[in-house]
Amino acid sequence: MSRHSLHPLAGLTAVYEVAIGWDRALATYFVIVFGVPDHGEDDDGSGLEHELVPLLWEGTRRAALATPEAAVEIAACYAAIPDGLAAQLAADRSKESTSVNEPAQSTLLATFLPQADAKPGHLT
To answer: In the chain, how many H helices and how many E strands?
Structure first.
């Protein structure tokens, strides 16, 4: 999995961070737009910050975003896109294409994301 953190566009004050990357297990690119954290108290009254909450999360299904350009197009609505990002995302995918799943990961993927054409230990 790769993950790149992008700076939100200046006018989007409700956006804290935009994450974009490649998820090998789901064979998809993804974009997550995180909102500004709530600095209020937790339910237990500890005063700790709440975790970042996704305002938008694309690429949560297998092969949902098939190209880096599709992910960059979504992210561009919320963040400044550095030159060469699509190429970097494609390189991230290529770098991970030779990875093989461990037995436990293969079992989980087969259970939660069954595919008729899947080979043990490999993602197609």
So the answer is: 3, 4
Could you tell me the pTM of the whole model?
0.75
Report DSSP letters for 64-99, one per residue: SS-SHHHHHHHHTTTBPPPTTHHHHHHHHHHHHTT-
Over 70: is that where the pLDDT of 34 sits?
Answer: yes
DSSP alpha helix (H) spans, the chain? 68-75, 85-96, 103-112
Say if CB 122 and CB 100 are below 8 A apart.
Answer: yes
Sign of CA dihedral 9, 10, 11, 12: positive
Report which DSSP code applies to 52: P
